[in-house]
Amino acid sequence: MDVSEFVNNLADSLVSWRRKLHQYPELGWTEYQTTYLIGSELVQLGYEIFVGKEALVTEERMGVPTHETLLAAEERARNQGVPEAWLSKMKDGHTGLVAKLDTGRPGKHITLRFDIDALPIAENKEGLADHLPGLHGFQSRYPHIMHACGHDGHAAIGLGVATFLSAHQEKLTGSFTLLFQPAEEGSRGAKSMVEKGWLDDTDVFLSGHIGISPMEVGEVVASAGGFLATSKVDVVFTGKSAHAGVEPQEGRNALLAAATASLHLHAIPRHSGGETRINVGTLHAGSGRNVIPDHATISLETRGETSELNQYMEDEASRIIQHAAYLHGIEADIQVVGKGVEAANDTGWKEFLEAAITHSDRVTNVMETLPLKASEDVTYMLNHVRERGEKATYFIFGTPLAAGHHHPLFDYEEKVLEVAVEVYVSSILSLLLEEEESNILL
Amino acid sequence: MDVSEFVNNLADSLVSWRRKLHQYPELGWTEYQTTYLIGSELVQLGYEIFVGKEALVTEERMGVPTHETLLAAEERARNQGVPEAWLSKMKDGHTGLVAKLDTGRPGKHITLRFDIDALPIAENKEGLADHLPGLHGFQSRYPHIMHACGHDGHAAIGLGVATFLSAHQEKLTGSFTLLFQPAEEGSRGAKSMVEKGWLDDTDVFLSGHIGISPMEVGEVVASAGGFLATSKVDVVFTGKSAHAGVEPQEGRNALLAAATASLHLHAIPRHSGGETRINVGTLHAGSGRNVIPDHATISLETRGETSELNQYMEDEASRIIQHAAYLHGIEADIQVVGKGVEAANDTGWKEFLEAAITHSDRVTNVMETLPLKASEDVTYMLNHVRERGEKATYFIFGTPLAAGHHHPLFDYEEKVLEVAVEVYVSSILSLLLEEEESNILL
Amino acid sequence: MDVSEFVNNLADSLVSWRRKLHQYPELGWTEYQTTYLIGSELVQLGYEIFVGKEALVTEERMGVPTHETLLAAEERARNQGVPEAWLSKMKDGHTGLVAKLDTGRPGKHITLRFDIDALPIAENKEGLADHLPGLHGFQSRYPHIMHACGHDGHAAIGLGVATFLSAHQEKLTGSFTLLFQPAEEGSRGAKSMVEKGWLDDTDVFLSGHIGISPMEVGEVVASAGGFLATSKVDVVFTGKSAHAGVEPQEGRNALLAAATASLHLHAIPRHSGGETRINVGTLHAGSGRNVIPDHATISLETRGETSELNQYMEDEASRIIQHAAYLHGIEADIQVVGKGVEAANDTGWKEFLEAAITHSDRVTNVMETLPLKASEDVTYMLNHVRERGEKATYFIFGTPLAAGHHHPLFDYEEKVLEVAVEVYVSSILSLLLEEEESNILL
Amino acid sequence: MDVSEFVNNLADSLVSWRRKLHQYPELGWTEYQTTYLIGSELVQLGYEIFVGKEALVTEERMGVPTHETLLAAEERARNQGVPEAWLSKMKDGHTGLVAKLDTGRPGKHITLRFDIDALPIAENKEGLADHLPGLHGFQSRYPHIMHACGHDGHAAIGLGVATFLSAHQEKLTGSFTLLFQPAEEGSRGAKSMVEKGWLDDTDVFLSGHIGISPMEVGEVVASAGGFLATSKVDVVFTGKSAHAGVEPQEGRNALLAAATASLHLHAIPRHSGGETRINVGTLHAGSGRNVIPDHATISLETRGETSELNQYMEDEASRIIQHAAYLHGIEADIQVVGKGVEAANDTGWKEFLEAAITHSDRVTNVMETLPLKASEDVTYMLNHVRERGEKATYFIFGTPLAAGHHHPLFDYEEKVLEVAVEVYVSSILSLLLEEEESNILL
Fold it and tell me: Which of A189, A334, B145, C88 has the fewest CB neighbours in a 10 Å radius?
């Protein structure tokens, strides 16, 4: 098996899959087209696939959009040609899928995870010559939705790895589970897959992310850490409207309650135990200039270097919001719509990876770790596997970025897709090989 | 001239005009269809009409929507059949019109004003049996726009009065100017008509409003007062975005600036000189949960029992907003998009009106005055005329209301349209008559 | 009885009493010296006096200082020569007294009220030539306490009236009750005298105030009105201290709770039903720069044109304070330490007074009424009497003021003392006389 | 020279000095008695002493109290017997002193620093059996001032070291400078001594602190680090008073400006570059319940893991305070009254100290370092010496504490005084010895 040559041959497919996905970005829990596109390929490759309620636990999903939003997304997918049988399985926000391949031979059970959702960002429409999707005509076709975090690439990499495993299944041992996870943005989807039990008997778990300036293509972090625990919270304040000129005293001001909450949330005391964060990212309130506002919403997030620190922030936030509402004589409905836990890096992966990719020209440098200072719900998976004493890691696949993650100009060098596939495949081969020889390394 | 009988015959037309207008409500400065509908009738009645820049001073318009909004409204009007010649005159938010009728005989110059714009309110869609527009199928055909303040009725009343004057022009003396004013909501339109000079040589000015619970149809206020002076202010806060997890210190938080401003605006000290009001009616800020918000807007209004009191509020508001922005290290752009002045009632009108409508069965009770505690930019007109020593009044035409002004269920008894036409016409006749006999009364 | 001549002879005594009282000002519920000074005079004049629990209902006193403060004031009074027998009766804040004189002849029962407490203001120490107490050496001898509202004059006037009644008791009819009320500042004392029943069988109630620029000495308001209802509220916030550098998250910030409360109290919506007021007058919080503040106090007041409006303010304030505390995770102890009710003027007094003082050179002008827009707990008395259908009024005795009430430079022309005595005495004589002749006028 | 035996003999003196100082605690820049007590001993021991402007640079003192406060403290010291000659040198807050001893023999110039000021804390008055100062009758004799941070012990240790050096001066080499620094609390005094040049030619600098639970007596930290940079800021807000009932609109509310500032200061964004702190420790505003407050003061502090981070906090704070004032239409006077810089630990001291105290029974354990997470203006001295390439360290002398630093129950085991003297003396001897032998170690 010459991995490098196989990846050479796969290069066009990787780009093709990526660009197709980039044109039809879908937000978390509405990845109907995306799931269908990925699933169709996997079925052709001979995988056993699990979709909808077979793949995740309904009640463990967080931050699911309203029924109306889901219906509209399903209708759009239907119009784009997603078959009714697929829609029926995925309906009401049961997107994402799991694919399994069992070689029938004894060996490790290796699980990989790829996230597939996009962001509510309007893709850049100007200076197209400098923006790859613009230059090559594969920009987002949906207004205000964009793959601005590289999950289009993650899904393409997943298909690349799946292609390799399928092609070489006769020579491999053990079994493989590929998780194509919905709703990573907002830390909403991972837990529902973990709770379905997919990781309960896995021996090794691998996942990763492309990006992180100023790394070059070819540079790889073996085990990223420093994931911040996070909570995503939505609040609806419901007051009472009144004519602002005629009887202001009859109103109950939801706008001011949201303002009070926002100011005081940002004043939660710093914690000497470590880093914390708070942000009220959006506030929308009121219906007209001369009406006491009876409605307001805020969306916020807390973070902490540890889950305990994040919980401190969430608890403080909850009390502040509740009493900011009561102070103004109104009610607040507080919903935790996403939650991510902390995770550290693991050791030993730099040596493992260096050994695994000795023959590779694509990987030029392996770094031991990197503190992300960001949130990713892959941490549910990393922790679940590590708690059972098994191995798990999260790679970073370096690439220059045209602009940072979540930016309308976000873009990366597509060569990174090849690097990622080669790293995953080489790691898998190395893991299987060590099984055969000894159990020392990992 | 039997006024009552004329009004009897006019009743069906009044209802028909009103219901037509109710179905096609248009917001301030976008009354393209409305102006055309009114103008077409007036042309048929033989009036000389002035549209667009002939009717108002471009620069004195306040709170004109964006060019895009105007274009969209013009396109909608075009699709509804408004001729290109009309659209061309009105383009870029030059709506409303002035109609003149000169008897050629010496006599008073009497000016009447009718406002014609609608509100950004979604009309009630439930329990139609109790909602007249629902029951009779003339509900608003435009989502989120509604004649919820009775200006559809005002325009119909104006056409009714115009019909009478046209029909009897051979027996009348003096001349008549009818102002069909755009953009009363938000106190944005009146000044631009005043500045055009329409009231510079008028001898008497009449205007009025239907409504005000719990008055019955037939009850009329001869000269309402207590208009609150008001300022309508829009603010844009521009900060700097940053990733809320990675580098919160790099952001400049526009959401918090808007929150700080809102809280402190509501804490402007009460004024011992009289009633004041403040309301931040809307606040919209931020783009995403994990981004320090770099953009926020608020729309607010101040009011005062006198223009001086309102200016106190506006001045305080301006300072507070500016420094709320600076406090957060950002900039605020403050625009006064509407402004109404105070006005009191005038005396003598109760006796005048009682004398004028002695023969009327429709008017059952004339009240001297009523303190409105609301804002209406007709005050620019009332004050302009009174400052010149001439007479001006503002009637209230009583009617039970299904729900208060600016409410999705707002509605009134259509019989009030007949009362209003009779009051206007009888007043005009009485004014002309007194001219002939003596100049004592008024 | 030549009233004017009697007052001429009384002039020196009035000035002497006033200046003595001015030098020993005492705050509400600590008027130990003041009560003793007044009481001694009244005993000499033959009045039956009621002191301490004989004069008021202990539990109805509001805003009584701490036991320590009372003890210190009693000790100071002891050192100033107040006999132990008096101190014993007054101890624990039972100051003020009631004096009765019964002629034994049938006739009206007339009650007069004079308030006697001073303010926590440091009297001006500069430019003494322009400040009468400085010029004549009778400035406050107590630091930070001053008769800056003229109650020294009120007490002197009371003694003047008492002297007249005593001197002429053989020629008078009916009976007289003189209330020397403690703790008017902060609206704390009147209710405790009312509840003792002193006004239950009175036929006429008279009280008044000196001052109100720009009135001249000789100008008198016959029946002032427009008293604002008011509540005086003290709040203690108790949080938890922590080292601000080492473990800020362990603190519960009472300073911020007080700040949050203060800002939001000033933002209580204006009420369309009439004038309202709010003021947080003092805030004290924290013990050291590097300690999270665990203690804060605020003193505030609300006012309303009516008691209902004031209650609206007090209720809003209470909710806001409570939840401002909870928002910061702490407790608030809210105490209403003073409360005044609304009162209007009464009619008929201008005519009455003009008739009563026809022979007077001192009174030059009688005005019917004046809206005070201030709070005075005499309203408990005015309302109590009027509710029983009896007559009650509150005079204003005009005098130029060196500076406004509650100002360190406050002072008035002492001639006003003579005017006030003459008005009271003339009114009493007129009331008794009308009894004899008829019952028409009042 | 048997150091241990010498310290044995010194034990009673150490306790005696410490208890004397504990009874007469003095706040920063008012250490008149303290300086005199220390100075008298040093003169007797033969030191050349520098007091007042000889010891520090007047203009570099920070946070000097008002002239009135200084005068009162000087008067108190005068009454306690401090001679006029000393008071004259120290007047206007020139406290603290420098003592020099030159052996006349070549050798290192070693400088030691001891801080001597107390805190504005009322010492515990209850449960005296459990509070050493209470048990032995040496509690603070000054209300609201207490040695609650152990500087009484530091000064006693300094005298102990001075006694040793004086006693053995014939056998020592080099020269010694002892800085008895005023006003450490609030980071106000160190800079004024540094700027006087005392450290410009020192070869080694030693200082230290007793305390830090849960260390035992005998445990010593060789080189503490993690000093937070800090700024101490006082703000005076000056507004305009007005009667809260009669004309609230005329006021300019300083209380609300202070409240606005406080809330927003605590909401300064967290910094991803490291730890920061903010605390508004005190707020005092207003004069009376019914007066719009025209005066408010706050005292606050910022901290940062680095001086750059602290500067970020100070800059943000400054802008927020300024515009909180402007928002309310008033002025703010912002004074930086104290400032401490960051400092890290230095390496090599653990080995050095272990070698220096091999013969000691008192020192049981030497720890390399400890991150303080607190501010201490010794950092000016540490940095000044280290920048010149010389050695400097800050010891921690362990002792159980009855309650934390700055607590009314603060107390320590007096045995720690002996440990500290032994550590200083042993270090000095070792430093001098190594000079003689080689210059390798340090």
Answer: C88
Three-state DSSP at C144 gives coil
For the segment B243-286, what is each residue's pLDDT rounded down to a tens digit?
A: 888 889 999 999 999 999 999 999 999 999 999 999 999 999 99
Tens of pLDDT, residue by residue over A190-222, are 999 999 999 999 999 999 999 876 789 999 999
d(CA D146, CA B77): 82
Sign of CA dihedral A209, A215, A221, A227: negative
Secondary structure of residue C198 in the 3-state scheme: coil
Find out whether C192 and C49 touch, Cβ atoms under 8 Å.
no
- Chain D interface includes C240 (CB < 8 A): no
The alpha-helical segments, DSSP class H, found in C66-131 are: 67-79, 84-90
**Residue ranges of D 246-265 with Cβ closer than 8 A to chain A:** 263-264
Q: Distance between CA A329 and CA D329 in Å, rounded?
A: 29
The pairing of beta strand B295-304 with beta strand B175-181 = unpaired
CA–CA min distance C269, chain A (Å): 6
CB–CB contact B293 A285 (8 Å): no
Q: Is the dihedral of CA C250, C253, C254, C255 positive or negative?
A: positive
Chain D: give the shortest CA distance to residue C297, in Å. Answer: 10
pLDDT for res A279: 97
In contact, D47 and D162? CB cutoff 8 Å:
yes
Note whether B264 contacts C263, CB cutoff 8 Å: yes
**C-alpha radius of gyration, chain B, whole number:** 23
> Which chains border D (3 or more CB–CB pairs < 8 Å)?
A, B, C
In the block, tokens 């939660």 appear at A268
A324 touches chain C (CB under 8 A): yes
Other Cβ atoms within 10 Å of C1 Cβ, number: 11
pLDDT of residue D442: 31
Q: What parts of chain C have a pLDDT lower than 50?
A: 438-442
Confidence of residue D435 (pLDDT cuts 50, 70, 90): low
CA nearest to B299 within chain A: A289
Q: Which two tokens stand for residue C244?
A: 């601000």
Q: Angle CA(C364)–CA(C368)–CA(C372) in degrees, nearest 5?
A: 105
What residues contact residue D243 under an 8 Å CB cut-off, 6+ apart? Answer: C404, C405, C406, D290, D291, D292
Tokens coding B283: 């606040």
Tell me the shortest Cα–Cα distance from D311 to chain B, in angstroms. Answer: 13
Query: Any alpha helices (H) in D24-144, and if so which ranges?
Result: 32-44, 67-79, 84-90, 132-135
Considering only alpha carbons, which residue of chain B is nearest residue D272? Answer: B247
Is A120 in a helix, a strand, or coil?
Answer: coil
d(CA B143, CA B122): 6
Q: Are C181 and C114 in contact (CB under 8 A)?
A: yes
- The single-letter DSSP state of residue C153 is H
D360-389: per-residue pLDDT in tens?
Answer: 899 999 999 988 878 899 999 999 999 999
- Whether B407 and B148 have beta carbons less than 8 Å apart is answered as yes
Given an 8 Å threshold on Cβ–Cβ distance, is C275 in contact with B270?
yes
* Radius of gyration for chain A, computed over Cα atoms and rounded to the nearest angstrom: 23
Name the residue among A158, A173, A157, A197 with its Cα closest to residue A109: A173
CA atoms of A423 and A417, how far apart (whole Å): 10
- Tell me the pLDDT tens digit for each residue of D16-31: 999 999 999 999 999 9
The answer to whether the CB of B411 falls within 8 A of the CB of B224 is no
Q: Does D271 touch chain B (CB under 8 A)?
A: yes
Amino acid, single-letter form, for residue D244: A
Give the nearest partner residue to B300 out of A248, A289, A373, using CB atoms: A289
CA distance C246 to chain B (A): 22
Phi-psi region at B374: left, alpha or beta (left = phi > 0; alpha = psi -120 to 50): beta
C177: phi then psi, degrees, rounded to nearest 5: -120, 125
